[in-house]
Amino acid sequence: MIYSREGDSSLSNTNITNCISQQATAFRYDYMKSTTKVKFCNFENLEATQKAISNLQNTDGIIERCNYINNSQTDKNYGLVHEYNKRLDVLDSVFRDNLKNKNGAIFSTISGQIYIFNCSIDTYSQSKNGGTISTSEMPMKPFFNDLKFIGISPCEGSLLIAQNKDKKDSIYKNIKLLSLINFFYHNI
């Protein structure tokens, strides 16, 4: 749906629903000059017949307070969210009722890193061959942060979700995160 290469880009307050494509059904960003930020978006009922729903190639990115609901992809080498060769932070987002695929995962990376903070991922959002996240560090049971969208407003929850200690920089630096199940402290 959305493709950008070698520039600056951001995506916010957007709903993308009921689409089918071979790859990057929601968005694809390649070789961007600055960190690409995707915030307050809903991606629902999307299908990628070959590659990822959301794809960042050689691009640092932040996906924050987004909903991925009832999506699917079929390539075992990709996930619904894919990062190649750079870093992607996924913050305060919801992954619910994504179809179990024969292959693939929710998150995938090739030569990059994906950091997942304070997200809700249900048991349906996995496949037997790829899983939710391919790592030995993840818990075996689903985890939830109880965030909800009210219209297209920001996510709201009953507890403090993130507090930026220095209050000057982006949300992922020096963050204290509090979830309904666990308290995490991460200093980047």
UniProtKB/TrEMBL annotation:
<protein>
    <submittedName>
        <fullName>Uncharacterized protein</fullName>
    </submittedName>
</protein>
